[in-house]
Write a structure and sequence with these properties.
- With 128 residues, this protein is an alpha+beta fold.
- The chain has one domain (3-127): Electron Transport, Fmn-binding Protein, Chain A (Pnp Oxidase, Chain A).
- Helix content is 23%, strand content 46%.
- It contains three helices and eight strands; from the N terminus they run βαββββαββαβ.
- It has helices at residues 9-16, 57-64, 91-104, and strands at residues 3-4, 21-26, 32-37, 39-42, 47-53, 67-74, 77-88, 114-127.
- Strands 1, 2, 3, 4, 5, 6, 7 and 8 form an eight-stranded antiparallel beta sheet that branches.
- Strand 2 and strand 3 form a beta hairpin.
- The protein starts with a strand and ends with a strand.
- The mean pLDDT is 95.
């Protein structure tokens, strides 16, 4: 399994499989906040999308500091994408994030506080 640093076909295929990710954001004191989250890669746009509650700690962290790392692991296969996140609460962005999430995972339960998280990728690594 060669280590990759770009969005190869193999890496994109890995990101299309149903895997839960860990998302790392930074608290106000600089310490990492790591939580599980469903994240969907858009390789054509070099972005990733996620949904969360607008009241979540990760949303608060990302509004203050957009630095984020997303990792998924399946045995010896893994990939991490890093980037700059934007928390979006407009109806169109949330609908787009929900659509993408439902394609990879399942239709999410209703959440009136839901926001979209769009990540502009700055780094890609993995062993797939």
């Amino acid at each position: 399994m060669p280590r990759v640093r770009d969005l190869t076909d193999e890496l994109v295929a890995f990101w299309r499989e149903r895997h839960l990710c860990t998302v790392t954001t930074l608290r106000a004191d600089g310490t990492p906040h790591v939580v599980p989250m469903g994240v969907v890669l858009d390789p054509e746009a070099r972005t990733a999308w996620a949904i969360t509650s607008g009241t979540s700690q990760k949303a608060a962290n990302l509004r203050r500091d957009p630095t984020v790392a997303v990792c998924q692991v399946d045995g010896r296969r893994w990939s991490t994408v890093e980037g700059r996140a934007t928390v979006l609460d407009d109806e169109a962005s949330v609908a787009e994030a929900v659509r993408r999430y439902a394609e990879r995972y399942r239709q999410p339960r209703p959440n009136p506080a839901r926001v979209a998280v769009r990540i502009e990728l700055t780094s890609v690594i993995g062993n797939v």
